[in-house]
């Protein structure tokens, strides 16, 4: 069952960087004015090579996400960083994720760790009593 509390939204950023410049890691902000936390960041070993994955949590749902995006548009240091980063990228994509009430909240961990990233396609289904649910 999907959580009815719209408290958090996760944003996954996947970037593929040029191998010759992968030593330049992104500067991750920790400014308290931004309503987001870095939950984790990884480099891939299998699948798409030279890919970095960053998992951000926006506490406060969509309003917090929009607040952060608007602040970043005004942040000169961040805009300069994006310009420099664009010279290293082969591709980039973002995903917004919703929490499920039956899975634990992702928490930062001390590493090194190995993770498997999975994607599920959900389909709506009817349950008895008029309730709706999802299955994989």
N-C termini distance: 12 Å
* pLDDT averaged residue by residue: 72
The geometry reads as globular
What is the CATH C-level name?
A: Alpha Beta
- Identify the strand order in the major beta sheet: 2-3-1-4
Tell me the CATH topology: Alpha-Beta Plaits
Structurally, the number of domains stands at: 1
pLDDT below 50 for ≥5 consecutive residues: which ranges?
1-6, 19-28
Q: Helix share of residues?
A: 10-25%
Radius of gyration: 17 Å
User: Which strand-content bin applies to the residues?
Assistant: 25-35%
State the secondary-structure class.
alpha+beta
The assigned CATH architecture is 2-Layer Sandwich
Compute the number of helices: 2
Q: Tell me about the biggest sheet?
A: 4 strands, antiparallel
What is the total tally of β strands?
6
Characterization of this structure:
The chain is an alpha+beta fold and 136 residues long. The chain has one domain (8-104, 121-135): Alpha-Beta Plaits. Helix content is 18%, strand content 33%. It has two helices and six strands, in the order βββααβββ. A four-stranded antiparallel β-sheet has the order 2-3-1-4. Strands 5-6 form a two-stranded antiparallel sheet. A hairpin with a 5-residue loop joins strand 5 and strand 6. The longest helix is centred in the middle third of the chain and has 13 residues, at 61-73. The radius of gyration is 17 Å and the shape is globular. The N and C termini lie close together (12 Å). Residues 1-6 and 19-28 have low confidence and may be disordered.
């Amino acid at each position: 069952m999907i959580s009815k509390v719209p408290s958090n939204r996760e944003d996954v950023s996947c970037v593929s960087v040029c191998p010759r410049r992968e030593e330049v890691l992104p500067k991750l902000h920790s400014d308290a004015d931004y309503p987001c936390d870095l939950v984790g960041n990884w480099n891939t070993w299998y699948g798409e090579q030279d890919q970095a994955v960053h998992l951000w949590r926006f506490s406060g749902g969509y309003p917090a996400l929009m607040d952060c995006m608007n602040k970043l548009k005004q942040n000169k240091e961040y805009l300069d960083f994006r310009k420099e980063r664009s010279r290293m990228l082969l591709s980039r994509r973002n995903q917004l994720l919703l929490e499920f009430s039956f899975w634990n909240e992702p928490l930062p961990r001390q590493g090194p760790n190995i993770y498997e990233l999975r994607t599920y396609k959900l389909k709506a289904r009817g349950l008895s009593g008029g309730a709706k649910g999802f299955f994989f």
